[in-house]
Amino acid sequence: MVWFAALALSLQATDVTGLRAGEAAVVVDAAGWFDPTAQGQFLHPRVLDATTGAPLAGVVIETWSEMGVEPTREEVRLDMAITGRDGSARVLFVEGEARADKVRLSKPGYASRVVSGSDAFHDEVRLYTATPFTGRVLDLEGLPVAGALVRTRETCAHAVPATQTRTDALGRFELQDFPPLGDGGPEVEVVELRHGSLYQLDSIDLIRQRSIHGTLDMYVARQRPVTLEVIDAHGEPLVGRHVTTKEAPVTHAWTGKDGRCTLLPSLNAFESTYFLCDSPGSSESLNAIFVDGLVSRVTPGMAEGVDKSGRLTVRVEGVMEGELPPPIVIVPATASFLSARNAEPLELPRGSARVYVGGDFTGWRREVREVAISEKMQELVFTPRREPRITVTSSHWKELTRFIAQAGDHSDPNGEAGVSGEATITASVAAGVPVTIFAEFEDGAVRRASLPPLDADASVDLDAEANLVRSGVPATSEASCALRFAVCDAAGKNLDDAMGRLYSSTPAFDSTDGEKGPFTWPMPPHATYRTAFEAPGYTRVYREGITPAKGEVTPVKIVLTQRARLVLRGNVREIDVGGNEPESTTDGVVLDVAAGPLTLCIQRNEKPELALDLTLAPGETRVLDVR
Hints:
The chain is mainly beta.
């Protein structure tokens, strides 16, 4: 068998002149690659190291479609391939009606990337060396939150997650393959079952915060998870149903034998919409009404056919003109929850029910009554007590980015409960439990005030020194630092005709040709940047990071590698090669490629297809004659 393979290889190699030791030309069945009906169905990128320009083997390339389960458009992976030694791979882009919206690239030791299909069609795609993204997740008291999910998304709340991890027992996390900033920076999400979510966070702002303060601390408030009991129109539990949230961050759960499932806390304190999504393209809405963490009973659709021959009116007294009235929620024994307006006649299922008036962070303390619903109209009258109100004073409200009032195991997810004047914020909180007032500001300052259980109104001055958790750092646009780079070839010779460009979180700077290639850009400290360097005949390289507080003193050496040129002459009908589009010239079919291993497929006239496995040296021009 070995003798036969060697004989076949030697016969096939005679079809190509110009091969060197260790290179091969093999007859293959690649008719499908050149099928005109398959054009546009495959991507064939070549993946390079962003800082060296060398081909990268072992990169996982995935194509993802966001045309999945409606209405959340859950992602579906169409195909996956791994790059060979030349850094290229062929991966399905279109399958039937499905078309890939995103292409994800990942490899240990490198930052993962998600790019569009057009960016990975027949192009060179670059991966950056991994720069781990680290930090801590803390509660409002500064205690570590263990087991929180920290993940990134490239473009929106429904996009393909780029990378994710969970916090350890000390609240620490590390994302090894955090996506590069050159793509604009991914969004960061923090989700945990008993804390409010942080979502659509700007990663560039987070990285700058870590640079400025020496660490990245993200604070989450305690918040009750959502438990739904999904029933049909007759009150029977719906078992094994897939429930998903509507708003970001998107989360999922499955109902158990009692029809119940638990999801992350809702961003809407009183009422929210969920969906049953059991199969692609199917969805039924679920309207959930929350009452201070109680199980919300929900029925898909309108629940038609339910007997609503009972009568009830709920009236609330003591509400001042212009004052927000307390919410009213009716909880029948077997039917879905429903809300009511003050003094509104209701048609309800007959039988026992509970009536809830008020609730945490509504401004009104919760009151509950049992009632037997009958055909005869009944009226229940409530005179609820107001929740304690905290008047919070600060001289920094104009720079406020986040305000949270937390009481016990719950918090107001909408943040600021009410503003009165320019110096104070008034928040209503639950009585009888410890209270935490938390605020973050544009300059990075964090202020926190802790109060004992309240039964009456109170006030707090956030500007008091005891309430300062982290000092702010004034923003500056002054270019007090400098980035310095020297561009050379592999032999260490400066490239006089090199070009460089800087992209930054500050206004972009375009370079000018420096004397024998050095580049210097004035930059403010802690600013993120990406640089691109190129020269005629060389492979472009990239570098990114964040400006250190003192700037670069010694220029960073940037090494560019000469590209190679491959000329194919003779019986060449069509070429398929990763990362490049061949150019037809009078000399033959020409490929301008990054140096290193290269694999390509050639379609010939009246002969089988050939696969070539080559290694091109930097600056080499190789001519191959194909018979």
